[in-house]
Every structure is written in structure tokens, then in C-alpha cells.
Description:
Elements lengths: L1 H18 L5 H24 L12 H28 L4 H23 L6 H18 L1
Helix pairs in contact: 2-4, 3-4, 4-5
Amino acid sequence: MKEGICTGIGVIGSGIAALLGGWDSALLTLILFMVIDYVSGLVVAGIFHKSNKTETGTLESKAGFKGLCRKCMTLLFVLIANRLDIAIGVDYIRDAVCIGFMANELISIVENAGLMGLPLPDAITKAVNLLSDKTKKEGE
């Protein structure tokens, strides 16, 4: 029974990794950053009660579910980029998408660290604020 379950999970995981372009350093780094961001967001909300995702600053299942949905959408963009690579016959679109989302996750990780009270160098704080402000202005 145990071997069957492990085999099933392995087959599903391998299929997903194949759809995302293979289990390489780009995908591993992106998923690692996504996990660190999600866990640090849980810590900010659950322990520090300073989340900017909720009105009270504390944990809310709806906010957590939205975060997971965003992470899944990120992986769908990686899948789309991989399929574009295959269709066009190149091998850089997926990597570029992974790098772009890695940068986004890194900004969020730094923001979470700041909300936890971790002293951040001014250069990092200014860079994050600049990128965040630019993103907000483009979204308007």
C-alpha cells in the first residue's frame, strides 16, 4: 500500500515537473522562493500580526487561499512559457519567466522580513520601495 501511494505521488509529481519544463535549478529556485514567501507571510500574520493582506493584520484563511491561488497562477505562467519555448523552438522564455517571478517573490520575502522587524540595509529597502511603487503606478 505504501509503495503504491509513493509511486502514485511520484508519477503525478514527475508529470507536473515535465509540464513545467523539467525539474531544473530555475524551477527549484522559484518553488523554493514561493515556499519561503508563503511561510514568511504566515509568520508575519500569525505571530507578528502585521500582515498588509488583511484588515486586522492577522491570519485569515481567505487571504491564505488567495496567496495559494496566486502561486498556482505563477506556475501556470511557467507552464505557458515552457509550451511557448517548445512551439517556437527556443529555450529562454521559460527561464525568463522564472527569473521574473523569482524577483517578485524575493521582493515579497524582503517585505515580509521588514514587517517582522528585521533590520534591512537602506539599499534593499529603497530598491523594494522603488519596485513596489513602480508596480503600483503601472497598475493604475
